[in-house]
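Subject: Peptidase S41 structure
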Amino acid sequence: MEFLRKHAALLLLGTIIAISFYSFGFNSGEKSLSTSVVGIENTMEGQPLNVDFAPFWKAWNLINEKYVPASTTLKTVDNQQKVWGAIQGLTGALGDPYTVFFPPIESKLFEADIRGNFEGVGMEILAQEGAIVVIAPLKESPAERAGIVAGDRIIKINGQETSSLSTEDAVQLIRGKKGTTVTFTVFRNEVDESFEVKVVRDVIDIPTINTRELPGGIFVIELYNFSAQSPNLFRAALREFITSKNDKLILDLRNNPGGFLEAAIDMASWFLPSSKVVVREDFGKEHEEKIYRSKGYDIFTDNLKFVILVDGGSASASEILAGALAEHGRARLVGGKTFGKGSVQELVDITSETSLKITIARWLTPNGVSISQNGIEPEFPVEYTLEDRKAGRDPQFEKAVEIVKQ
């Protein structure tokens, strides 16, 4: 999972509000409504100028005075829950999938994600275009073992349609006790019809890194996320690469959904001179951009043969690292276009039990390319099909080996 930053440090995928349409009836002539606000203390603290809140309070009073649940199975919603819902509607009006309000239950789930240990299936998801889209399954997770791949569109969870679910709604349905099963109805571009995938939940410990050597002087580092421990683990992997006397390096960032910004900057610094731009933080026209630069470890010469593997599951910090090293000519990119998660979120406590994850800036590559706009296009695009997976082939990795040998 990606981790959120509190002080311009971290990145995290958020949620999008999906809209569905309902048939309803109403009394068109009804105008009798009390003018006072019913059931809530209204201090109007911080009310913006030139904004008419009368429609909101009219709707609030109407709900309190008139509303009858359409079914006895609907739960009772108290005034505080209505406030939480109103804030969720406010964030939803922005149309930003990464700006999200977390009521108490969702806030606790989010804290569990940040700790990096929870019970579930182990995949990064995002509510997008009427479905739950898999950004990437975590390495060796129940989701990956069951055959879930990046780009899968989950249209049902345990039979429940996902078209109107937020990311957080879906997370609550997917999470569960170790040993229990969740059933996904999946649509995959390469398959004509949707199909079901059953996944047995487990305790998810987020993996970080793996290394291996190949014949011909090739050293492979597989990085699965950008956690707080990633810089030290990456440094140890580079030390292993150097002592192995290999001279060709492949960094596999496929299905890496990102994490700490500082981790990406630290890793880039092993390949870039001091003060070279790693990423730009764009706060909009009203504020000056912030530039993050290499720390200048720069221990490798220009003779290093270096390829980075990316795909649609490579997001945020993965895109920052790959984009910086490619634009500075330190690495060549092979694989598929990256996800395009290039925005910055800050986590703010609203109450002791609730929080707001709000987008405050955009990430740009050193050359000023917006990561969110189109993702990062690899120099050598290579498709990795379902048939390839079934046959045990990895044409993207094969191309990386070919390029690094040249």
